[in-house]
Amino acid sequence: MSENNDVLEFLKKHNAIVYGHFIYTSGKHGKVYINKDALYIKPKVISELCLEMSKIVQNINFDVVCAPTIGGVILSQWIAYHSSNLKNCEILSIFSEEVDGKRVLKRGYDKVIENKKVIVVDDVLTTGSSIKKVIDAVRSCNGIVQGSLSLVNRGNVTADDIGSPFLKSLLNINFESFEPEVCPLCKNNIPINRDLGKGKKMQNL
Ligand SMILES: [Zn+2]
Exposure check for the chain: N or C terminus, fewer CB within 10 A? Predict the structure, then answer.
C-alpha cells in the first residue's frame, strides 16, 4: 500500500469512499465523501492502515503518539502499537479532548508528554484546524512536536499551515466542491445524501 492509488482502492474496497451528493462541514457541496466511520468498525482494516502510517515515521525519533478524540484515539492506539513493534521500544498513546473550543490534555497526559518527542495524528484533514489545535495543546504542555501524520489529506493542508516540522499523509486527494448556489448536482435535482455528511443534520432542506 505504498502508492496513493493503492490506498484509495483499499479505502474504496472498505466502503470509506462514497459517491453521491453531499454537504461538507464547510457548507459546500460535492460528489465524494470519506466515510471514516466505515473503517473504525473494522479493527483489522484500521490496524493495516495504521501499520502503513507507522512505516512512514519509522525512522523518526518519538516517544508518544497524540491524536484528537474521537476517531483519532483509535489511530493513536494502533500507530503506537505498530511503532512499538517496528522500533522495538515502548511508544505511548494519548489523546486530547475538546474543552470550550480548545484542545487540552487531561488525565495526567500533560505530564506524560513533558519534554517527550511527539507525533501528532489525525484521520481526515480538510483545513487542518483540528490537528493544529492538538499540536498547540502538546506544545503548551512542553511536548516536542516531531511531526504530524494523517490518514487522508483532502484539503492540500501543508506542514506550514499547521506549524508542524513535517506533515505526511497516507492518502493525498482533492475533491471538487461547490457553493450550494452553483452546485451542478443541485441543478440536476440529485437528492442530497441524508445519511452522511452535514446533510443528515439538515432534514428540512
Ligand atoms: Zn448540491
Answer: C
pLDDT in tens, 42-83: 999 999 999 999 999 999 999 999 999 999 999 999 999 999
Which of 166, 171, 135, 167 minimizes the C-alpha distance to 153? Answer: 171
- Provide the domain limits for residue 15: 1-35+175-205
Residue 41 Cα to ligand 1 middle (Å):
29
Tell me, yes or no, whether 129 lies in a domain. Answer: yes
Distance 185 CA to ligand 1 centre (A): 5
How remote is the CA of residue 183 from the centroid of ligand 1, in Å? 5
Q: Hey, CA dihedral for 126, 129, 132, 137, is it positive or negative?
A: negative
Domains contained in the chain, number: 2
Model-wide pTM > 0.70:
yes
CA angle 200, 201, 205 (to 5 degrees): 85
One domain for residues 86 and 105: yes
CA of 102 to the centre of ligand 1 (A): 31
Calculate how far, in angstroms, residue 5's C-alpha sits from the geometric centre of ligand 1. Answer: 27
Confirm if 74 and 102 have CB atoms less than 8 A apart: no
Residues 117, 65 share a domain = yes
H helix or E strand, kind and range, residue 131: helix 129-140
On whether both 169 and 117 belong to a single domain, the answer is yes
